[in-house]
Amino acid sequence: MARNAIVGQSGGPTSVINASLAGVFQVCQSRGADTVYGMNNGVAGLLEKRVVDLSKSLKSDLEIEMLKRTPSSFLGSCRYKLPDMDKDPATYEKLFAILNELEIEWFFYIGGNDSMDTICKLSDYGKRIGSPIRFMGVPKTIDNDLMVTDHTPGYGSAAKYIAAVMKEIIRDATVYDTKSVTIVEIMGRNAGWLTAAAALARAEDCEGVDMICLPEVAFDVDEFIAKVENLMQEKKAIVVAVSEGIKLADGRYVCELSDDARYVDAFGHKNLTGTARYLSNRVSAALGIKSRSIELSTLQRCAGHMTSRTDITEAYQVGGAAARAAFKGHSGEMIALKRLSDDPYQCTTEAHDVHEVANFEKKVPLEWINQDDMDMMPAFLHYARPLIQAELTPMYINGLPRHIYLEND
Amino acid sequence: MARNAIVGQSGGPTSVINASLAGVFQVCQSRGADTVYGMNNGVAGLLEKRVVDLSKSLKSDLEIEMLKRTPSSFLGSCRYKLPDMDKDPATYEKLFAILNELEIEWFFYIGGNDSMDTICKLSDYGKRIGSPIRFMGVPKTIDNDLMVTDHTPGYGSAAKYIAAVMKEIIRDATVYDTKSVTIVEIMGRNAGWLTAAAALARAEDCEGVDMICLPEVAFDVDEFIAKVENLMQEKKAIVVAVSEGIKLADGRYVCELSDDARYVDAFGHKNLTGTARYLSNRVSAALGIKSRSIELSTLQRCAGHMTSRTDITEAYQVGGAAARAAFKGHSGEMIALKRLSDDPYQCTTEAHDVHEVANFEKKVPLEWINQDDMDMMPAFLHYARPLIQAELTPMYINGLPRHIYLEND
């Protein structure tokens, strides 16, 4: 009987999720897995038995290097939530039948909160039925909102991208000798980690953003406008970073105040875009000043052309560590990053029970937020700065970054 | 008496406008200008005598290299249009008095259509009064809409950025196994050059965008929705590139159809944002499909972190060529880029009477547009591909691209 591994990717894309895939793949191969399968579109695809033999796509060191430089899930993704195993055992029976047919011994899932919920449920079910399959979670999310890990792979590159484009937006916004307010909307539904990264823009060559608004702090529109007005006494051009998820004291999202048509997705999540546009319109109307809104949108999670080498390396490491742990017999765990020191930055990996991770959210500590000045405290900068260090140059072919794509059988 | 030069930057930022400044500065210095002044905020600042001695900011080769890597106008910009010299001679008298006081012999202005209008008027007025000052224009605009030049410095880098992020957006948009339409809005009020650059994304590793809509072709919303519906028969995830300036057959901008508040700026230009959002809402409503809009916004004109080395080099060359021409006695001209061949790509510079440039707009030739398929013809790809070649690596310090900033006296 063959001893095979399988790996899937789930949830929103990041620019380093494929480095984790490379780590899982290479360690599984070196530890002697006969075949390393990839799930097309995560567990949703696995349920339809859509899998690929990864060794056919990843044949050379060059292809592994391309994979590390390719943003967004190489295997495709899904937003599939496993049902309760007591209410719907048939789904589990089907999944385990497919895994047994594929002779899977090691199962890896790269993703965020929802994906760790999948690892939780599969390992719990596996225990119940006495399956020998090992289930390991590999953390991934630009949102940096997973528990037990110091930070999540994906966050460093997104933070670097956000800080770099904020510097560029600030240069662009301050070029004229006229009054203007630029409001930049950054991802993060409930946790402000990504928006906080705008604070990294400030340096010898950049004044930095003038305000940072996180979902961790209740937002007041009138107070915001008053602060903008106040800032305009001293500076002509103001640049503000706001999270898409900022909320009023009564719990409503700021973007819900706008008249725009709003959508709720299949999972009941509200579409949160429009926060910056709403605030920009309010500032223009209240202060009679030119105001512009910019949404960083999906660009911030798939900017493979500018990644943090630290992040790429750690994404690879957590993938490799998950494979090593599974081969040692671990199951029902997620690999976390554990920081040993800030300066010099040192970080290692450790395994945690996935029940400590699934369905929890880690927010920005309130003591890292300067609520009066709407800015980040030095503690945040010490935390985040190491994560954006160093670069991994894209492979440019014919003027553009080259990616690797999955050739389905 | 000193023999001095002065240089200004005007209009919207680009990521290579400072390479032209470097070219003007270095050639003026090497040809023996006593002082090279920079205008703060272009002619608007010059009228207030806000000038700097550039040798104080640009003291070393390292600073020149930083300048080439710094996006958005180093000297600041303006959107000032000189009045008619017969109606308002006082403005001209004031400007020439300041230039004479600064002992200016050579005057350079880096910009687009409006800036060439400034060179036109100043050189015409100079001739009228017998001034010995030489006035030269240096082309700059991401829009690529200037006459007589094969292309404009700034376009290549913006095109490279657009093509690279379209590849990333396509990877991000196609990651789920569900139906979706992503509509990306790209700058370009009347000329579709930037939106056309989305066609460069297609390569061995990328299917490319599914439709490209330029302002050169009248747009029909119902026809657009029908084409999307048709495409969805074959593909699950569609990505479309639209110009912010697409218009209906009756001349109205598509974005004017939306209910959003609209602003008209001080020059009577309509604010054109909202085109993609409007179309995305229409597609969702008509087809019941998830649709997302993305505006590349100012990111596309100030992305100093990813520039075309070809573009940076040519931006430097046109600045240097303008200085050489002025020192030879040319005036009232703009330096144009003249393509000698596509493959291998060769390009040189030549001077043109600025009257041929000012206040004209160059559009994408209709024969380069495949109107049925809403795509670009190979002729466009042959034209644009050389302009995005090669890279100039940013100087990363502490994880972020480092820029140089003007220290005012």
Question: What's a quick, concise take on this entry?
Answer:
Chain A is an alpha/beta fold and 409 residues long.
Q: Give the spatial strand order of the biggest sheet of chain A.
A: 3-2-1-4-5-10-11
Largest sheet of chain A: 7 strands, mixed
CATH class wording of the largest domain in chain A: Alpha Beta
Quaternary organisation: homodimer
CATH-assigned fold name of the largest domain in chain A:
Rossmann fold
Question: How many alpha or pi helices of chain A?
Answer: 12
Helix and strand composition category of chain A: alpha/beta
Please give the structural blueprint.
The structure is a homodimer of 409-residue chains.
Chain A: E1 4-9, H1 17-30, E2 36-39, H2 42-46, E3 51-53, H3 54-57, H4 61-68, H5 89-101, E4 104-111, H6 113-129, E5 134-139, H7 155-173, E6 180-186, H8 193-196, E7 211-213, H9 221-231, E8 237-243, H10 275-287, E9 290-295, H11 309-327, E10 333-342, E11 345-353, E12 369-370, E13 375-376, H12 378-384, E14 396-397, E15 400-401
Parallel strand pairs in A: 1-2, 1-4, 4-5, 5-10, 6-8, 6-9, 7-8
Antiparallel strand pairs in A: 2-3, 10-11, 12-13, 14-15
